[in-house]
Amino acid sequence: MPRVRVHQHVNPLAPYFRFTPKPIELKEIFADANYPLFLDIGCARGRFILKMAEIEKQQNFLGVEIREPLVAEANRLGKDAGLSNLHYEFCNAMMALDKLLEKIPEGVLQTVTIQFPDPWFKKKHAKRRMVNAELVETIVRHLAGNGRIFVQTDIEFLTEEMFDLFRENKDLREILIKENPFPVKTEREKAVVEKDLPVFRKMFGKVEK
Q: Active-site residue among 32, 40, 118, 154?
């Protein structure tokens, strides 16, 4: 079956995307709701966590994506692969991630990834960038103690703006990394690396209280 065709960018502030998602119930979407949860925000076609779910069988993987056709396609592929530890949700993470995650038990969300988010180059479109202070606060609030957040981009001007939002959160500490710590790379990362272009990465850990 051919890949679903969608616009590369969609405006998260458009009325269509201003909806409140139903909170997810882990026991309804995963075979074992007690496994640690890995959340990939802006997962696009979802191939990264599909491959991760094949490798890490005792971990649940949740992909969040704003382009609804990609979510339907990804869930179909996950079902075809027989992966009961993988699920995708249609959600505007910039506005509604907190609502989506509100029923996740404390301590379950162990890992969050944000990889190559849309940069929205024009200054007048900066408010459309997914990573903002509210999103960071939401992630940290739901993240387990000692949980990890991995962020990467190939857009240099976006690095400090994005990374500083995480650095400014008092409940996070920066973890030194040199390479992608995961055994799988996104399609975007592969393309950038093949062109011998730089990728800017940071890892943050939640300070356990």
A: 118
Q: Round to whole Å and give the CA distance between 133 and 82.
A: 37
Cα Rg of the chain, angstroms: 16
Residue 130 DSSP one-character state: S
- The answer to pTM > 0.85 is yes
Tokens at 196, concatenated = 């011998």
Q: Residue 114: which of 38, 6, 26, 8 has the closest Cα?
A: 38
- Tens digits of residue pLDDT in 112-151: 999 999 887 788 888 989 999 999 999 999 999 999 999 9
Contact call for residues 102 and 23 (beta carbons, < 8 A): yes
How does pLDDT run across 188-197, given as a tens digit for each residue?
A: 999 999 999 9
Joined together, the tokens standing for residue 183 give 């055994």
Q: What structural domains and CATH numbers belong to the chain?
A: 35-206 (3.40.50.150)
Instruction: Report the pLDDT value the prediction gives residue 119, as an integer from 0 to 100.
Output: 82
The set of residues, in sequence order, having a beta carbon less than 8 Å from that of 121 and lying 6+ positions away, is none
What is the Cα–Cα distance from 36 to 73, expressed in whole angstroms? 24
DSSP 57-77: TTSEEEEEES-HHHHHHHHHH
Structure tokens, 117: 């988010």
**196 catalytic residue (yes or no):** no
Q: How far apart are CA 17 and CA 191, in angstroms?
A: 29
